[in-house]
Specification:
The structure holds two protein chains of two kinds.
Chain A lengths: L47 H6 L16 E2 L54 H24 L8 H29 L6 H31 L7 H8 L1 H14 L5 H29 L7 H28 L5 H25 L14 H18 L11
Helix pairs in contact in A: 2-4, 2-8, 3-4, 3-5, 3-6, 3-7, 4-8, 5-6, 6-7, 6-9, 7-8, 7-9, 7-10
Chain B lengths: L5 H8 L34 H24 L8 H13 L1 H17 L3 H31 L9 H7 L1 H14 L3 H31 L4 H28 L5 H29 L11 H18 L11 H12 L3 H11 L13 H10 L3 H14 L36 E5 L2 E5 L2 H10 L3 E2 L2 E2 L5 E2 L5 H4 L5 H8 L25 H5 L7 H6 L3 H12 L13
Antiparallel strand pairs in B: 1-2, 3-4
Helix pairs in contact in B: 2-9, 3-5, 3-6, 4-5, 4-7, 4-8, 5-9, 6-7, 7-8, 8-9, 8-10, 8-11, 10-12, 10-13, 10-16, 11-12, 13-15
The chains are: A mainly alpha, B mainly alpha.
Chain lengths: ~400, ~550
C-alpha cells in the first residue's frame, strides 16, 4: 500500500542566517552602536519619544547637504523659521551656502538654533496618544452609558436641560474650530518635528472632545424627552452670550501668518480666560446642584486634556523663549503685545457670557468670582512663562 | 462601546461643520485650482470614539508581534541581504509620512468643504502614527540585528546622501507649492492610491519571504490606514473635476505626479524587491509582474480609467511608457546596478548577485544575463579589497551616469537622456517628461495660463556637485558613513563582516577624486555638449560605453 505524496507547495524556505545582534564582532557591533547617534538628547539618556521624533524632519543647518528641493512660488522652502515672529537663539545666522566642492558644510555645534531644543514634556508619539485617547473615549462612553442605564437624566432640573442643550452643546463648536483650524492648521507651519507632533496631539484632543460633546448631545436627544439636539446650533449662531466668544475663536484662526501667536493666544490666553471659565468655573460648578453627575465627566476629560497635557507642552514651548540667550527681551515684548491684544478680547467675550450664570435653576458661584478665579489662573500661567500679567487684565 | 450606530454618530458630528461668521481663517497656502462649494460627503465616515480604540487595537497587534519576533529569535533567520536595504528604506519613509500629516491642513485652506476636513484630520493623525511607528521599527532592527551601522545614524545619512535626497521628493513634494498639486494629486491621488501598493503591500510580502515578519506587521497595519486615505483623495478629485477650469491643471499634475512616482518609487522599491531578496522561486512574482497587477490593473484600469467619463484626462501614454521602461528598458535593473556602482557613497551593505540570482533574473527577464551578467560578475570579483579600487573606478564597461535634474535618479536609460539650458546652466534629464516637469510644469505660467501658486524645483539637485574634486575618503568622512573604529566604512559591497574583508578610508584615499558630471558638462562649449549628448544617447544598456563609430 502506498501513501499518496502531497506535492510540495511553493513557499519561501526559512534559512538559518545567524543575523542577530552579538553573533559576530566587527566595527560597530558593540552595544554602544545600538543607539540613534545623530542627535543630542535633552537629558542624559535618550528617550523613546526622542528616538521616534527627533530629526525626522531635516534642517539645512544640520545634514541637509543638498538643501530643500521644492520651493513655494515666493521662494520659501521647508519649514521657514520666519513663519512666526518669535525667535529662538541662532535663527538669524545664515544657512550654510553650499555649491561646487563645498561638501556638506553642516553646522558643527548642534543644535544650531533654539527651536531644536523643544521637547514635549508629555512625550507624545503614536503609542501614547492612541492609548490615552482610547482610554478617554472608553471611560466617557461608559460614564454616559451608566447614566443612561440609571436614568440619571431624569434627575436634571428643567432649566439645566435647556442649559446643556444650548450651552454645553455650543461648546462643541469651539473645540472643533480650535482643533481643526488652529492646531491642525499650524502643524504645517511650525519648525521641527517635535513641534508639529505636539500640535497634532493638541489638535486631536480638541477634535475628540468636540465629537465627545456632539455624541453626548445625541445620547441626550435620544434619552430626554423634548431635548432638542439641534438647539446648540441656534445658540452658537444666534445667542448674544455666544457671539463674543465666537468672534474670538474665529479671530484665532485668522491670525496673520504666525503659528506662534495662534498657539500662544489659544493656550495661554483663551483657554484659561474663556475655556476654563466656562468649563471649570461654570459647568462643573453648576451641574451637581442641578442633579447632573454626568456632564462633568464628559467636560472633565476635555479639561484634563488642556490643564494636564496641552498646557504642559505650551509652557515647554514658549517658556524657554522668554529666557532665550539671544532673544529673551525681544520675545517677551512680542508676547506681552500678544497678551495686550488678546486679553481684552477674551475679557469682553467673558462678560458677554455672564447671563449664562443665571440660567441654571441651582445657581453656580457668582460670575465675578468665576472670572476672578480664571484671571488668577491666567496670571499664574503668564508669570510662570516669565511674562507680566498685562494691565488689560484689570479691566 | 457606544450603542449609537456609526452612521448616526457620523451624521451627528456633521453638525460641527463651521461656516465663519466674523473672521475667515488665514489662508496661508494657495492653489490655482478653483472649487465651488459642493456637497461632497466625508468618505472616511470615521468618528474618533471608534477610531482611537480601533487604532489602539492595531497597535497592540503590532507591538505584540514585535515582542514575539524578539522572543522567537527572528533575527536568526533574517536575510542580511534584505535587511541591509531596509537601512535605506526606513531612513527615507518616516519623513514622507509626517510630511503627509503636515500637508493635510493645506487642504483645509483650499477645499471649501468642512465635511471633508474631518477625514483629512483623521489622515493627519494616521500619518503621525506611521512616521513614529516606522522610526520605532527601525529602532528595533538597530537593537536586534547583527549590524546596527546605518540604522543607528539613519537620519543623518538620509539627510546627507543622494538616495535620501531622491526620497525626499516623497515628502517635500507633499507640502510645498500649489496645495492641490502637492497634497491632493501628488500625495493622495497618485502616491497613496497607486504606489503604496508596491511600497506597503508588495514589499512586506518580500520581507516575509526573507525571514522578516516585522516589516509586514508594521506596514500592513499602515496600509490599512492608507486605504482610507485613498477615499479622501477621490472626494477632492471629484470636487476639482466639477469645475471645468481645473481640467488643464489636473492633466498637468497627473502627468507630473505619475511620472515622478514612477521614477522614484519604481527605482527604490523595484531594487529592494528584485535585488534585496534571496527568494528565487520561479513562481514568485517579479517586480514587473507585481507592477502589472497592483499598478497597471488595480490602479490604472480599475481606478483611473473610470474617471475619464468625468472629464479627467488620463496620461495613458505615460503609463504605457512607464511599463516600457520597466519591462523593455530594464529601468529597475539599471537603478540597482547604479546603486551598487556607487556603494561607497552610501551607508548599507549591498550584496552581489549569485548564479541562483542570475538564473532567476534570466527566467523572469529573458536577456538579462547578456546585459547585466558580466557586470555583476565583476562586482563580485571586486567586492573585497585586494589591491584594486571599488568598482566605480575599475574598467568594467560602465560609464558613470549624469543625474536627472528633476527626479534626481541618474539618467540610466541612456537613449532617453535630454538636456536643457536654464538660467545659463545646462541640466540633464533622464527622460523628456522630466525635462517637461522642470521646464514647463513647475513654472509661473503653464500653456499661457498664469499659475502663480505652482511650486519650484530648487536646491543643489546634483549631489556630485558638492564634492567635485574631493578625495573619496574625505567625502565619506564628511557624510559620516564611517564605523566606530574611525576608519571602516559603513557601506560594503558584500555581506562579510570579517574586518579584514571590509573597506576602509585608507582604501578610498588612493582612489581618483570625485568628478561631478554636471560640472564637467557645464565646462564644455556648445559643440562639446552636443557631442556629449550624442555619445550618451548611444550608451547602454547596463551603462556600457557607446560603441566605437564605424
Amino acid at each position: 500500500m502506498t501513501t499518496a505524496q502531497r506535492p510540495e507547495r511553493s513557499v519561501p524556505k526559512p534559512q538559518f542566517t545567524d543575523a542577530e545582534a552579538g553573533a559576530q564582532e566587527f566595527p560597530d557591533s558593540g552595544a554602544s552602536a545600538r543607539r540613534y547617534n545623530y542627535y543630542k538628547p535633552a537629558k542624559r539618556k535618550q528617550t523613546h519619544y526622542e528616538d521616534v521624533t527627533v530629526d525626522v524632519q531635516p534642517d539645512p543647518r544640520h545634514y541637509l547637504a543638498q538643501g530643500w528641493i521644492y520651493g513655494f512660488a515666493d521662494g520659501s522652502r521647508g519649514y521657514p523659521l520666519t513663519w512666526t515672529k518669535l525667535k529662538a537663539w541662532g535663527v538669524d545666522k545664515p544657512e550654510p551656502e553650499n555649491g561646487v566642492g563645498t561638501g556638506n558644510n553642516h553646522v558643527e555645534e548642534w543644535p544650531a538654533h533654539g527651536w531644536h531644543e523643544f521637547r514635549d514634556p508629555n512625550e507624545e508619539w503614536e503609542m501614547t496618544f492612541y492609548r490615552y485617547n482610547a482610554n478617554v473615549v472608553r471611560q466617557t462612553t461608559q460614564n454616559v452609558e451608566n447614566a443612561r442605564q440609571a436614568k440619571a437624566f431624569d434627575n436634571w432640573t428643567a432649566n439645566w436641560k435647556t442649559f446643556v442643550e444650548r450651552n454645553v452643546g455650543a461648546w462643541m463648536h469651539i473645540e472643533h474650530i480650535l482643533g481643526l483650524y488652529v492646531f491642525a492648521a499650524i502643524n504645517r507651519s511650525c519648525p521641527t518635528n517635535m513641534h508639529n507632533t505636539a500640535m497634532v496631539v493638541n489638535s486631536m484632543h480638541k477634535i475628540r472632545f468636540a465629537q465627545d460633546l456632539a455624541l453626548y448631545n445625541l445620547t441626550l436627544s435620544e434619552e430626554i424627552e423634548g431635548f432638542d439636539g439641534t438647539a446648540h446650533l441656534d445658540a452658537w449662531n444666534n445667542d448674544a452670550e455666544w457671539q463674543g466668544i465666537r468672534k474670538v475663536v474665529e479671530a484665532l484662526t485668522a491670525v496673520d501668518d504666525d503659528w506662534g501667536e495662534m498657539a500662544f493666544a489659544t493656550n495661554v490666553v483663551f483657554e484659561p480666560l474663556l475655556g476654563e471659565l466656562f468649563r471649570s468655573n461654570l459647568v462643573q460648578q453648576a451641574a451637581a446642584g442641578n442633579g447632573d453627575f454626568v456632564t462633568p465627566t464628559v467636560i472633565g476629560a476635555g479639561e484634563y486634556d488642556y490643564s494636564q497635557r496641552d498646557l504642559r507642552w505650551t509652557q515647554a514651548c514658549f517658556g524657554p523663549l522668554t529666557q532665550d540667550k539671544e532673544f529673551a527681551a525681544y520675545n517677551k515684548e512680542l508676547m506681552q503685545g500678544w497678551l495686550s491684544k488678546w486679553v481684552p478680547r477674551c475679557l469682553e467675550a467673558a462678560r458677554a457670557m455672564q447671563p449664562l450664570w443665571s440660567q441654571p435653576d441651582a445657581k453656580p458661584p457668582r460670575f465675578e468670582d468665576a472670572l476672578d478665579r480664571a484671571k488668577s489662573r491666567f496670571a499664574g500661567i503668564v508669570t510662570e512663562l516669565g511674562l507680566e500679567p498685562p494691565k488689560e487684565l484689570s479691566q | 462601546m457606544s450603542r449609537q450606530s456609526l452612521a448616526k454618530a457620523h451624521q451627528k458630528i456633521q453638525e460641527l461643520s463651521w461656516e465663519p461668521q466674523y473672521h475667515e481663517p488665514y489662508m496661508k497656502y494657495g492653489t490655482d485650482y478653483t472649487f465651488r462649494k459642493a456637497a461632497k460627503k466625508d468618505p472616511l465616515k470615521q468618528v474618533l470614539r471608534s477610531y482611537f480604540p480601533m487604532q489602539e487595537e492595531k497597535d497592540h497587534r503590532v507591538y505584540g508581534a514585535s515582542d514575539g519576533a524578539i522572543r522567537g529569535n527572528m533575527f536568526r533567520q533574517v536575510q542580511e541581504r534584505w535587511l541591509e536595504w531596509q537601512k535605506l528604506f526606513l531612513s527615507i519613509i518616516p519623513l514622507p509620512e509626517v510630511s503627509a500629516a503636515r500637508s493635510m491642513p493645506m487642504l483645509f485652506h483650499v477645499v471649501p468643504n468642512p465635511e471633508l476636513h474631518n477625514g483629512q484630520a483623521i489622515q493627519m493623525i494616521d500619518e503621525v502614527r506611521h512616521s513614529t511607528i516606522q522610526q520605532n521599527l527601525k529602532r528595533l532592527y538597530m537593537n536586534n540585528y547583527i549590524d546596527p551601522a546605518g540604522f543607528n545614524n539613519s537620519l543623518r545619512n538620509f539627510h546627507s546622501d543622494y538616495c535620501g535626497t531622491i526620497g525626499r521628493q516623497f515628502a517635500e513634494g507633499f507640502i510645498t507649492g500649489d496645495a492641490i498639486t502637492a497634497a491632493s494629486i501628488y500625495l493622495t491621488i497618485v502616491a497613496e492610491t497607486a504606489f503604496t501598493n508596491t511600497l506597503f503591500v508588495a514589499m512586506p510580502a518580500e520581507a516575509a519571504a526573507n525571514g522578516d515578519y516585522l516589516l509586514p506587521t508594521v506596514f500592513h497595519s499602515v496600509q490599512s490606514d492608507e486605504s482610507r486615505h485613498i477615499s479622501n483623495g477621490y472626494a477632492t478629485l471629484l470636487m476639482a473635476l466639477s469645475d471645468e477650469d481645473n481640467r488643464q491643471l489636473l492633466e498637468r499634475d497627473l502627468r507630473y505626479a505619475w511620472w515622478n512616482n514612477h521614477r522614484v518609487v519604481d527605482a527604490a522599491i523595484g531594487t529592494f524587491i528584485e535585488y534585496g531578496t534571496k527568494d528565487r522561486r520561479k513562481d514568485r512574482e517579479s517586480y514587473a509582474e507585481m507592477w502589472r497587477r497592483w499598478i497597471y490593473d488595480d490602479y490604472y484600469r480599475s481606478y483611473l480609467v473610470p474617471l475619464e467619463k468625468y472629464g479627467l484626462v488620463i496620461p495613458h501614454d505615460l503609463i504605457e511608457e512607464s511599463w516600457k521602461q520597466i519591462w523593455e528598458k530594464g529601468y529597475v535593473h539599471e537603478v540597482a546596478q547604479f546603486f551598487c556602482t556607487g556603494w561607497l557613497a552610501n551607508y548599507w551593505r549591498m550584496d552581489g548577485m549569485t548564479d541562483t540570482d542570475f538564473e532567476w533574473f534570466e527566467y523572469k527577464y529573458p536577456g538579462w544575463y547578456d546585459k547585466y551578467g558580466a557586470w555583476w560578475e565583476n562586482y563580485n570579483r571586486l567586492a573585497t579589497p585586494n589591491g584594486h579600487n571599488p568598482i566605480v573606478f575599475e574598467d568594467v564597461d560602465y560609464v558613470y551616469p549624469a543625474r536627472c535634474w528633476t527626479c534626481m535618479v541618474p539618467c540610466l536609460v541612456r537613449e532617453d537622456m535630454v538636456m536643457a539650458d536654464i538660467d545659463g546652466v545646462t541640466r540633464t534629464y533622464c527622460h523628456e517628461v522630466c525635462r517637461w516637469t522642470d521646464v514647463e510644469a513647475f513654472r509661473p505660467t503653464y500653456q499661457g495660463r498664469e499659475t502663480p501658486n505652482m511650486g519650484r524645483l530648487v536646491g543643489h539637485r546634483e549631489w556630485e556637485t558638492l564634492y567635485h574634486g574631493w578625495n573619496w575618503a574625505d567625502v565619506v568622512t564628511d557624510m559620516g558613513f564611517v564605523r566606530d573604529d574611525g576608519k571602516t566604512m559603513t557601506a560594503q559591497p558584500h555581506l562579510d563582516l570579517n574586518p579584514k574583508k571590509m573597506w576602509t578610508l585608507d582604501h578610498l584615499r588612493r582612489c581618483p577624486p570625485l568628478q561631478s558630471p554636471n560640472v564637467l558638462i557645464n565646462g564644455l562649449d556648445a559643440a562639446g555638449k552636443a557631442a556629449f549628448q550624442a555619445d550618451y544617447n548611444r550608451q547602454g544598456p547596463a551603462g556600457r560605453p557607446a560603441p566605437a563609430s564605424a
